[in-house]
Amino acid sequence: MSENIFIDKNLSKEEKYKSLIPQIKSLITGEEDFIANLANVSSALYFGMNYFWVGFYLVKNEQLVLGPFHGPIACTRINLGNGVCGTSWQQKQTIIVPDVDKFPGHIACSSDSKSEIVIPGIIKGEVIFVLDVDSENLNSYDETDKKYLEELVNFITQTKK
Ligand code: SME
């Protein structure tokens, strides 16, 4: 694995993803412990992209359970169909929420979170985790985030033994 992640703070969002994603792929390649990899991915995204909160919820016994993350403490369990994470799990698709106050059933782990994107990690048609990214600002996420975070999540699912 590589020892350091380097991101130029002056790059555009897309340029940051283009620089960061290959570094993250390199970071987790060769390590077979899934949780260790999710932990490093959380840290790399948090510091690389300056997210307010980023982390994984893992599907365990019909619930999403909090996994590796970076940012303020978060709610630990989410049911299928609940909040943005539970909806992404249920619909098996990425959900972008420009204003969390306008998303029915949004789960406010922090009142500082204003917009959000959730990407499901799918293996053989089943969601095994979701990646949740939160922002302190409205309208933070768009098709650029979706494209690069889906690419990353697809890569992560391929590393799962
Ligand atoms: N807001 C999420 C819950 C997780 S936290 O934001 C970390 C949701 O509505 O699913």
Provide an overview of this structure:
This protein is α+β, with helices and mostly antiparallel strands and 161 residues long. It has one domain: 2-Layer Sandwich (Beta-Lactamase). Helices cover 36% and strands 25% of the residues. It has four helices and six strands, in the order ααβββαβββα. It has helices at residues 13-28, 34-49, 83-91, 143-159, and strands at 53-60, 63-70, 77-79, 95-97, 115-123, 126-135. Strands 3-2-1-6-5-4 form a six-stranded antiparallel sheet, with helices on both faces. The longest helix is centred in the last third of the chain and has 17 residues, at 143-159. The radius of gyration is 15 Å and the shape is globular. The model has no long low-confidence stretch (mean pLDDT 95). The site of methionine sulfoxide (SME) has 14 residues, from α3 and β6.
| CATH top-level class | Alpha Beta
Number of separate helices = 4
The order of strands across the largest sheet is: 3-2-1-6-5-4
User: How does the major sheet shape up?
Assistant: 6 strands, antiparallel
Could you estimate the helical fraction of the residues in percent? 25-40%
Distance between the termini: 18 Å
Into which percentage range does the β-strand content fall? 25-35%
Q: Could you name the ranges where pLDDT drops below 50 across 5 or more consecutive residues?
A: none
